[in-house]
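Hello,

Following up on my earlier ticket. Below are the two sequence lines again, exactly as submitted.
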Amino acid sequence: MPSVEIKGLDLRYSSARVLQDLNLEVMKGEFMVLLGSSGCGKSTLLNCIAGLVEPDAGQIHINGRNVTWDEPSARGIGMVFQSYALYPQMSVEKNLSFGLRNAGVDKIEIDRRVRHIAGLLQIEPLLKRKPAALSGGQRQRVAIGRALVRDADVFLFDEPLSNLDAKLRAKLRVEIKRLHLEHGNTMIYVTHDQIEAMTLADRIAILKEGKIVQTGTPDDIYNRPVNRYVADFIGTPSMNFLDGELLGRSFLRGHLELPLADYPFIHGQCADCSAMIGIRPEHIVTGKDLNEATVTTQVVVDMVEPMGADTLVHTRLEGTAFQIRMTGQAQVRKNDRLLIGIDPLRASLFDRESGLRL
Amino acid sequence: MPDKSMSDWCSDGQRVPDGPRPSSGFSRRNVMIYGTLLVIALYYLFPLYVMIVTSLKGMPEIRIGNIFSPPVDITFQPWVKAWSSACTGLDCDGLSRGFWNSVRILIPSTILSVAIASINGYVLANWRFRGADLFFTILIIGAFIPYQVMIYPLVILLREMGLYGSLTGLVLVHTVFGMPILTLLFRNYFTSVPEELFRAARVDGAGFWQIYFQIMLPMSLPIIVVATILQVTGIWNDFLFGVIYTKPENYPMTVQLNNIVNSVRGVKEYNVNMAAALLTAGVPLIIYIASGKLFMRGITAGAVKG
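Thanks for your patience. The regenerated structure is below:
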């Protein structure tokens, strides 16, 4: 049974369509990440689910109940905001218990739940403090605690980690993942950070201009992007794209010929059309792995970016900029000639006209 | 170890730039700035000095005519007389009655106007109802309409309500006239509060009044201070509404001061007049001095950090 179901959601601000006939199902206990660049409508969608923004059309169901007209507090949700949004004049304890007090839960029960959550998130020593006396990471923990304490069915996260520094972000990311594994609540998580999306999600929904472009597991999204936009959006450094022609069972570009006999075409095979191939920098092999490669070719190194764990090598292939990701220990210098191997089965083919996956 | 004091100087006697740049206290620039400031400060403080000095002199000393000289024989008699027995028309009970009238006008008007304006501001900033912008525009236009236009209609309105001449009527007038500027003040303050805070409270099931009393109001202390100071000084200094909308026994202190000073019977008692003026100015003066820092903090209060 879907835990959250969105049917035909539409929202416009004056003339701009922020959400366009949007449909989404989130299963019970699923961790769904809404991913997209800024302004794609992902936060708006989350606010619609929470009941903080009214849609112009469409329905929202939570646990099989139509909650489209319900108040946020009546929807059985907990929410974590990007700016933490802790009540500045209340102690951490009062922040955590505010929702329960409003709901008229009795004192002993409130106390029990606050203690439990504080223990879970290791914020017990902070209970008497005001939010101003907490660090960023502590504030976000309290904000997460405030959502959890409500014992809701669905938790909504609106870019909860983007105000934190990189180290803390990685740490809290793991904690959120652990919380989800231990409690198994449904979670909907908005982010523009693809690392967060890939590591946390059971499924990712990619939004663009108020529409969902692709929904799928992180593996699906990474290896089988449905169109050029998703392919380009996911992965850093981003995918290399080469324009070329599809002739018979091969992709041709200049001197380069990639055999595609085993490539899993989805829309049948468009014979003799203009296509584009996308190859991830990390899917290009060099050195002793070359034996396993289907196709090998030679490139000249333009620039090298050592990044510690790996090295990014900028080259040109058939006149187009082409990046290769090698191990951090690779000894490569500008103007070196490099033999590279390409495996067409790990590449993605797109129709050049529509941008759709072939 | 090299001698540091030696290495600080170049061979030609110039000091090597190191650490804070040396500043000279008596540069021409500083003399100009502080000189000008001093002259302006004296210019404004001088009348106050004359008032204080005169209020402490007896009438014979004043008649000599040296208004700038300090009192030879300090007397507090003019202050006592101004407070308790100066004559306004037929009554001779001093400013004290006016003082208590002003207090009776001030306290309810200030509390009422600040309370209503803060709710107005909260609604306009957070609960965007249909027509909110229009409502706000109309309210702000109210701030630009000259008082003179509204005086007579208000007299009729109060008369019809049976409040004309009473303190309640004047309290109502002050509350209404404070509304545009105070609402603007509170609306802008609440707009600067992050919207997510309001959203979080709604998810937490807080209603209109719970959000107002438990979250917004506790955060708005700086702006409440500013609004209160504006209202207290404004209402205390008001003369026009006091003289129009009340009867002589309800006159506020400012109106009574005017009546004492402009009393045409007998000799002009300059020392009593000065003492009366200082007594009347005392309340706003004390408030400004006591709350200067708080006032500035409230005026400059921008985004509220959680």
